[in-house]
């Protein structure tokens, strides 16, 4: 099997599970183009820890980590199995990279995991290992996590970062809608797309200072950090392809990115930039 790509998915609101819209269409289309993975490792913006934690449960529970949503949403489950052996492999790779991981045998699937996976692989028949992110450690740390996990792609494992390409929940009450988009969304997402296309990792790591409206698009880092995990997992010669999945509620950009290693390049190459 040739190496799988790595993915960054914008999971949006938990309501995406009930109202998948264009995001559901795009994720289903994407899954149809990929070789079937043996397993999935997914870093979610909704599992935060000071060091990388790796879920090693045999039967991870579905976590309904939200409130104020319809009862039907709380009734949804994603009954994929865990993969303790793969979790140990993930922890070993992170440990070799000096990232001090910990195994967590009780962690289930938060909505950053199960909402997009229901749309990618609705049969829930592929083992899943969740991984935490470290919001205080910043983009360079997330990139290092992804680069540590890069060998998994050649072992038939799909590495996914799950967040949102813009994420400012304070704008829920700002009156934005499909007819009135937040003015910062497209300049920010265009900048991300351009820097990824250029392979400008240094600028991306410094996005808070260089990207237009960065503080408005991401008051905190956690929903963009999984992008760096996915980017790192594709290796130093990552080629990015943006998949437009629209803008929900006028301020949640739902971009999806597929990262492939450039032909002839190795995921083990030294860091770029």
From TrEMBL:
Record family assignment: Belongs to the DODA-type extradiol aromatic ring-opening dioxygenase family.
Extradiol ring-cleavage dioxygenase class III enzyme subunit B domain span: 19-237
Pfam family name, one: LigB
Protein name, UniProt field: 4,5-DOPA dioxygenase extradiol
Cofactor annotation: Zn(2+)
GO molecular function: ferrous iron binding; oxidoreductase activity, acting on single donors with incorporation of molecular oxygen, incorporation of two atoms of oxygen; zinc ion binding
Organism field: Rhodanobacter glycinis
Record keywords, A-Z: Dioxygenase, Metal-binding, Oxidoreductase, Zinc
């Amino acid at each position: 099997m040739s190496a799988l790509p790595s993915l960054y998915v914008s999971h949006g609101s938990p309501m995406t599970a009930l109202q998948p819209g264009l995001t559901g269409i795009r994720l289903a289309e994407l899954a149809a183009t990929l070789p079937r993975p043996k397993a999935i490792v997914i870093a979610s913006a909704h599992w935060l820890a000071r060091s990388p934690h790796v879920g090693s449960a045999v039967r991870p529970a579905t976590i309904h980590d939200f409130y104020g949503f319809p009862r039907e949403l709380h009734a949804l489950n994603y009954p994929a199995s865990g993969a303790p052996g793969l979790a140990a492999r993930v922890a070993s790779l992170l440990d070799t990279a000096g990232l001090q991981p910990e195994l967590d045998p009780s962690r289930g699937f938060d909505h950053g995991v199960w909402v997009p996976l229901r749309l990618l692989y609705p049969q829930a028949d592929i083992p899943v290992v969740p991984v935490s992110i470290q919001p205080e450690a910043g983009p360079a740390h997330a990139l290092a996590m992804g680069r540590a996990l890069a060998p998994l792609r050649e072992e038939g494992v799909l590495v996914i970062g799950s967040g949102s390409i813009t994420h400012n929940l304070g704008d829920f009450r700002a009156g934005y809608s499909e007819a009135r988009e937040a003015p910062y969304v497209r300049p920010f997402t265009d900048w991300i797309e351009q820097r990824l296309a250029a392979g400008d990792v240094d600028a991306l790591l410094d996005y808070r200072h260089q990207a237009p409206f960065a503080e408005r698009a991401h008051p905190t880092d956690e929903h963009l950090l999984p992008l760096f995990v996915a980017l790192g997992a594709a290796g130093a010669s990552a080629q990015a392809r943006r998949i437009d999945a629209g803008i929900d509620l006028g301020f949640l950009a739902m971009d999806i990115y597929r990262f492939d290693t450039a032909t002839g390049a190795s995921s083990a190459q030294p860091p770029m930039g």
